[in-house]
Amino acid sequence: MKKTTFYILTILLLTSSGAFSQDDLSRKNLNENIGSTYLTEYKQAEYYFNLVPLENSKYNFHFRYIKSGQIIDLYRENDENFSGQITNFIQETKEVKTDYGYNSAPINYVFDKIKIADTNATKLGQYILNTKSNEIPTDSLIPNWNFNWLDCGAIKFKYKIKNRISSGTYTCPQNQNDSIKYVTGIKNLKDTISNILELKTTFDDFTNKLPKGASYKIDGWITMLKLSEKQLEWREKNKPMRDYLKTIKDTIDNYLELELNRLIPNSADLDCFDDYRLTFNKNGQLKNMKVDMGFWERTFDKDYKKCRRILKKAFREIRVDFVDPKYVFYRNLSFGGKEIYITDPTLY
User: N or C: which end of the chain has fewer CB within 10 A?
Assistant: First the structure.
């Protein structure tokens, strides 16, 4: 049986009006030979951001930490104080035409590099050495580590201490049970780095410099949209509409999920794996149902045709007429492991 992952698209709206200089940021186009997916390997980080592989590092201590949107490097030569830098990065996207309309595709990495204050680098370096975090095995070697989280992300640690190289990848560490061996140490290291280096503030400063009127992706699935002045004007003009739709959002979402799972109780057994974009008219009736699939797939894929037919039959009995939508509204429908899920893509 096919396996599917349910993705929840989170959209962040940034409207900073601070001055921007192109010279503040660097860019590197995606390279299919290196890999255009979101930093699945260390060599991608080294290629895109001009980072020296730890195996070739001149330092006797070199620590690299890769997390969502940031890479932290700490290093020390001989017995001198520690130094380091933070690389902030994001993927810039552009619209591409598909069979069902338009979709956003990543085109490059945008990044900058910030020097870490030596006092903070030294504090962190000593913490890492004192806690011996380099001796923690990677998650696949830790008994009872839970890998069943969806869209949770992972963090990567890599160490060079003298001539010894070690590394560890930890999937969704924040959701692991503290009773599992090593989990507390991993969480403490992650939080200590974040607090001392103020990583959230550093990343916010980076995103504030990004050009407006463009869209970006974090971790390959979290979309960040920076509105242009015209888009901001349009958004302000349509604020009353969004405010009203927000008041009925949860009511509509809960109703659609409840009814769909009541009318299609065996959805987990249907081999339905596509995500649908639903458009409802201002009277609450389903107007359109689109899927990210080519013409020939839509024409000949038997599972898709079966699932679409089942959904259309269910929607004949579903009417969002107990509230007055007043406006056209949109929802995303996904088949999960056990049931059908509804999410709202609207930027409120």
Answer: N
β partners of residue 67: 70
Q: Is the pTM of this model over 0.90?
A: no
Q: How far is CA 227 from CA 10, 16, 110, 211, 246, in A?
A: 16, 9, 17, 9, 20
CA distance 51 to 28: 13
Distance of CA 126 to the CA centre of its chain: 31
32-57 pLDDT tens trace: 888 877 788 899 999 999 999 999 99
User: Tokens in use for 209?
Assistant: 């410099």
Give the SS3 label for residue 104: strand
Tokens (6 digits) for 218: 């974090």
User: In the chain, which residue ranges form alpha helices assigned H by DSSP?
Assistant: 42-49, 118-131, 183-197, 199-208, 229-237, 239-263, 295-300, 302-315
* Ramachandran angles phi, psi of 156, nearest 5°: -130, 135
String of DSSP letters for 42-64: HHHHHHHHTPPPGGG-SSSEEEE
Measure CA of the first residue to CA of the last residue in the chain; give whole Å: 38
Q: Which of 37, 49, 6, 60 is nearest to 337 (CA)?
A: 6
Q: How far is CA 22 from CA 111, 112, 210, 234, in A?
A: 11, 11, 9, 26
Task: Give dist(CA 154, CA 174) in Å, integer.
Answer: 10
Per-residue b or e along 108-117, where b marks 16 or more CB atoms closer than 10 Å to that residue's CB: bbbbbeeebe
> What is the bridge-based pairing of β-strands 222-226 and 11-14?
parallel
In sign, the C-alpha dihedral spanning 181, 183, 188, 189 is: positive
* Phi, psi at 96, each rounded to 5°: -125, 145
Q: State the pLDDT confidence band at 196, using cuts at 50, 70 and 90.
A: very high
Quote the tokens at residue 265. Answer: 């109780």
Beta strands 276-280 and 329-335, pairing class:
antiparallel
